[in-house]
């Protein structure tokens, strides 16, 4: 089992930009924002993958 991988703490400016990304018409930007925000909440890669419908490795690649 791989060690948990999380992003660093996000600033308020970064969080605001990520939350804007959730409303984007670009699916890539939406999914990336979902992954990064979930990681900021200390969610594990496998749980994030299940939430957004991708593999845990894809989540790790984004993080």
- Approximately how much beta-strand content do the residues carry? under 5%
Mean pLDDT: 95
Q: Biggest β-sheet: count, sense, barrel?
A: none
Number of strands: 0
What gap, in angstroms, lies between the N and C termini? 17 Å
Residue stretches low in confidence (pLDDT < 50, at least 5 long) are none
Please trace the helix and strand order, writing H or E for each element. Answer: HHHH
Which structural class is indicated by helix and strand composition? mainly alpha
Helix count from the secondary structure assignment:
4
Shape estimate: globular
- Number of discrete domains: 1
Q: Helix content range of the residues, please?
A: 55-70%
Radius of gyration: 11 Å
Task: Characterize this entry briefly.
This protein has helices spanning 12-21, 27-40, 45-52, 56-62. It has 63 residues and is mainly alpha-helical.
Layout: helices, strands, pairs:
Elements: H1 12-21, H2 27-40, H3 45-52, H4 56-62
Explained architecture:
The structure is a single chain. The chain is mainly α and about 60 residues long. It is built from four helices and no strands. The longest helix is centred in the middle third of the chain and has 14 residues. It starts with 11 loop residues before the first helix and ends with a helix. The mean pLDDT is about 95.
């Amino acid at each position: 089992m791989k060690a948990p991988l999380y992003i660093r703490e996000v600033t308020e400016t970064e969080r605001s930009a990520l939350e804007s990304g959730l409303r984007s018409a670009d699916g890539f930007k939406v999914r990336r924002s979902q992954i990064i925000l979930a990681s900021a909440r200390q969610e594990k890669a496998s749980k994030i993958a299940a939430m957004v419908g991708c593999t845990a490795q894809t989540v790790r690649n984004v993080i």
